[in-house]
Amino acid sequence: MHAGFLRFKHAATATFVLAAAMLLLPVVCTAQNPDGNSNEPRGMIATAAGFVALDTPKGWVQADGPGLAFFLPEGVDSRNAEVWMYLSATPIGPKEDDKDLHSAIQSDIAGFKQRFPNGVVRAEEPIALPRVKQRAEVYTFESGEERNAFEQTAYIEDLGRVWIVTASAKSAEALSRSMPVFHQFVQTYGGSIQMGSPPSK
User: Fold this and answer.
1) Fold of the domain built from segment(s) 18-194
2) pLDDT at 97 (0 to 100)
3) HEC states along the chain?
4) What tens digit of pLDDT does each residue of 158-200 get?
5) For the whole model, what pTM was predicted?
6) d(Cα 148, Cα 115) in Å, to the nearest integer?
7) Which of 20, 38, 51, 86 is close enough to 67 for a disulfide, judged by CB 3.0 to 4.6 Å?
């Protein structure tokens, strides 16, 4: 399967710690909802970097794949998928290569341009994150190569790390069709419960 750019200096293998999830989920599921109802259960994704409050979009499922978590439309085989989404993370802080959100984004862009000299990167309108009252910075990446790939990536600053949510597609049309679902997915971010140190690069 064509896996997009997979700029995984950030990536760690996804893992699901069920015992911890049973203990932590009741706490996180009471996160404040955009409509102010704090009792409605919210989605959680368990990863090697901790638990992330994100609601998997309707019609999509978590599947085996690269990154901390990987998502496909329901009923789609990963080998034939036109579009998919994945979650990764990169550490930030005084002792890290990337000191803050801006540094992490610029490092990602620099790595992409080094790999794809003809590639194009565009800054897009940020996505509001109502549950945490902040914004995700958003960029579109196009490789410019014959077997082109198209991605839109949202960068969400968290304590000691940046969560990176990406929609990847085999064509500009497929990416465009996925944008409402991708933006909805990003908007559901409600924070995280971290387990240990952020994943190393």
Assistant:
1) Protein Transport Mog1p; Chain A (3.40.1000)
2) 94
3) CCCCCCCCCCCCCCCCCHHHHHHHHHHHCCCCCCCCCCCCCCCCEEECCEEECCCCCCCEEEECCCCCEEEEECCCCCCCCCEEEEEEEEECCCCCCCCCHHHHHHHHHHHHHHHCCCCEEEEEEEEEECCCCEEEEEEEEECCCCCCCEEEEEEEEECCEEEEEEEEECCHHHHHHHHHHHHHHHHCCCCEEECCCCCCC
4) 999 999 999 999 999 999 999 999 999 999 999 998 765 544 4
5) 0.80
6) 13
7) 86
pLDDT band at 42 (very low <50, low <70, confident <90, very high): low
When pLDDT is averaged across residues 96-100 and rounded to a whole number, the result is: 96
Domain boundaries defined on the chain: 18-194
pLDDT at residue number 144: 87
Structure tokens at 96: 């890290």
Contacts of 176 (CB under 8 A, 6+ apart): none
The answer to whether residues 135 and 48 touch, using CB atoms and an 8 Å cutoff, is no
**What one-letter code names the amino acid at 42?**
R
Considering only CA atoms, which of 92, 91, 84, 41 is closest in space to residue 61?
Answer: 84
Would you state the structure tokens that stand for residue 177, as one six-digit string? 């069709």
Percentage with pLDDT > 90 across the chain: 63
Q: How many angstroms separate the CA atoms of 85 and 175, rounded?
A: 10
